Amino acid sequence: MGVDDRAAISPTAGGHAPDAAMIDGFTLVIEALQRNGLDTLYCLPGIPITDLTRRAQAAGMRVIAFRHEQNAGYAASIAGFITRKPGVCLTVSAPGFLNGLNALAHATVNCFPMILISGSSEREIVDLQQGDYEEMDQLAIARPVAKAAYRVLHAEDIGVGVARAIRAAVSGRPGGVYLDLPAKLFAQSVDAAAGRSTLIEVVDPAPRQAPAPDAVRRAVDLLKAAKKPLILLGKGAAYAQCDAQIRALVETTGIPYLPMSMAKGLLPDTHALCASAARSFVLPEADVVLLVGARLNWLLSHGKGKTWGGKSSKDWGGQKFIQVDISPQEADSNVRIDAPLVGDIESCVSALLDALRGNWAPPPAEWLGAVQDKKARNIAKMAETLAKDPSPMNFHSALNVVRDIVKANPEAMLVNEGANALDFTRSIVDMYQPRKRIDVGTWGIMGIGMGYCVAAAVTTGQQVIAIEGDSAFGFSGMEVETICRYNLPVCIVIMNNNGVYKGTDVDPTGRDPAPTVFVKGARYDKIMEAFGGIGVQATTPAELRAAMEAAIRSRKPTLINAVIDETAGTESGRITSLNPSAAKKP
Ligand code: ADP
Ligand code: TPW
Ligand code: MG
Q: CATH: 3.40.50.360, 2.40.10.10, 3.30.70.80, 3.40.50.1220. Which one for 213-372?
């Protein structure tokens, strides 16, 4: 269709196409999404997208309306991780867009495919800064935090706009894509047949990318020369959904592996080769490390320093690295990568397995034995701590219950945020199946909780268990209403220690509460009751166990206020060392 043809388009005032022979922007957007299997919108209605939410629902899409766009956005981002299709978040202009933007940045940073669609106001007025309703140059603002950003001005370009957004979100390294849809677009009417003919069903949106044979050889040579090899599985490996190949890689090679937080469960955490309980031993000791969908960012101490056996915080520990990643720019981002293996994880791992078959000797028994010893000792130490039953309840005695419940319900989704509530859960609660654990991710953000719960329930239909710090919960707590409204099987456990990290700080001047403390004895369970869900106060492990079991049996929205010793936490949880005030201490 040429530029001149656009004159034939007549915008209509209402939200509906005038007759069956015509089709409007609203319908074209919905059909463009549906044609590509995007069947769910995580949204918050308002001008100019209210009718889009209504008509999407009427057209059979699942439309999940939230109380704040940030939570809708986080839901979309994790839906992308779970399903490998872009999660779609829909917001109004300026303020709604900005509320959703945080999640868009989060999706990009975590390599989750997501599309943020925001309505926007009139281009002519925005560009002359004449003060339109919710005026903002959204496209320009989204660009720095998005993998890609597009705007559609003409109804006949909706198909291309949606197709480009899908490809950008899921191909290569996945990320967040912004799609700007000005209000006028929705009302544009075009001939129905001509309009539909512009829609695109995207063919092969995330093409496989096989690694080069010489890169595979280089990686295999390095791996075979190793005396103390280690495999590190990241959330890219979980996202890739090639669980059988990942398991075969570990079991065929017999190399101990460490799962990053969201890779837990790719193989059961109880697997003989899982080295999680010996993490601080294997990282500095390993001589060759095979990274699979994991970046050497702050979560891995940038691949150097004392964690890796370096003498000082900046020193290289002497390890050689093989890095499997779809992004050709990832290698050497922190330390030298001796064997980059660029391609999709399924292709790369399959290629490694092919090259190793009949050509592999298991790692030296000395290395395997040392890892097992360290692991056994640490597991025994942890079992001792978990067996205690202090009063008041602490993180360990509460999480010992959660550990049992997750073991008995391995298909349940586990959402987790907080500081101590996060770190202790990650180390204590074993995961048994892939992509069941979803948490604060690369940025360690608070606020993903309830959005993740909603998306986890909607996309999987499974029971969801959320282990939340009391501070963390506060960022998205109002979505408890959303959970009740859609009657989702979500059991939220608040690890309530009266504050951020703990509840014991005081204002030295005696005037105000300290910045890290909350109202003492708060009853978060009442929030759930306000919307018709089940609220329970638990002060002992036995009460917590009974409440969690009942929640899972009933599949009713449940919030358990687990009262935790307010002195139990440590400042910043496990990442105390990143706190600037820690640097001052001798
Ligand atoms: P973690 O935080 O678990 O260590 P990261 O988010 O740091 O994981 O790393 C995930 C990596 O996985 C990213 O570098 C990303 O490019 C890569 N990745 C994501 N999906 C794929 C895929 N299908 N194939 C190959 N690499 C992938
Ligand atoms: C968006 C900083 C990291 S952890 C945390 C905050 C505020 C809360 C810790 O308290 P919580 O957990 O949840 O009660 P616990 O068990 O230790 O008591 N804003 C954002 N993200 C982050 N990470 C912060 C602030 C932070
Ligand atoms: Mg707390």
A: 3.40.50.1220
